[in-house]
Amino acid sequence: MAAYTELTEARVTTRTAARLTGLPRSTVTRRRPARGPAPAPRRVPVNRLSGAERLEVLAVLDQPRFVDLPPVKIYSTLLDEGTYLCSISTMDRILAEHAQLVERRRIARHPARTVPELVATGPGQVYSWDITKLAGPAKGVYYDAYVMIDIYSRYIVGARVHPHESGCWPSR
Questions:
Q1: Which of 31, 71, 116, 136 could share a disulfide with 141, CB 3.0–4.6 Å?
Q2: Residues near 137 by Cβ (< 8 Å), separated by ≥ 6?
Q3: How many CA atoms lie within 13 A of 7 on its CB side?
């Protein structure tokens, strides 16, 4: 970045400086400090909660009656009781600061389901099948090719062609 700045101050074009330093011009433009007066430091809002007030809000959020509720419900419950501590977003920020911004209810955790897997250790143990459409002699006429495959050896052990798909395997 410093090399790019030195090149551009020495009146080298930005395109050439970018090519020589290997930096994209868009990146350098974004990272370059703004010209002109420095921005004024941000003022602290006058209604910002102090550290002690934030701990008081956290203590209320962690009470046994509120521990399973989201900030929206806590806020409305406290308002019904005539108490205003802070806004809902401030409750969210305080919980996030203390790493408590997660699902606050007790939810059953179900184990991940495993996909059933068929394993063949030799030929003739597990078969798979497939149906494929085959074009017929005329337009719009199709036949169904049924193929049975041994998954261990990957050999075709049976194949039939039928004019339409049916639920039962016809015997000969």
A1: 136
A2: none
A3: 18
Tokens 């934030």 correspond to what residue?
Answer: 54
- Residue 55 is which amino acid? L
Whole-angstrom distance, CA of residue 47 vs CA of residue 54: 12
**Taking the model in full, what pTM does it have?**
0.41
pLDDT per residue rounded down to tens, the chain (172 residues)? 788 888 888 988 989 988 989 888 888 877 766 565 666 788 888 889 999 999 999 999 999 999 888 899 999 999 999 999 999 999 999 999 998 877 666 677 788 888 888 899 999 999 999 999 999 999 999 999 999 999 999 999 999 998 887 666 656 5
Q: How many CA atoms are closer than 13 Å to the CA of 10, on its beta-carbon side?
A: 9
Judge contact between 8 and 1, C-beta under 8 A: no
Amino acid of residue 138: A
Q: How many CA atoms are closer than 13 Å to the CA of 151, on its beta-carbon side?
A: 11
Angle at 56 between CA 50 and CA 59, to 5 degrees: 145
SS3 2: helix
Residue length of the chain: 172
Calpha distance 27→15 (Å, rounded): 12
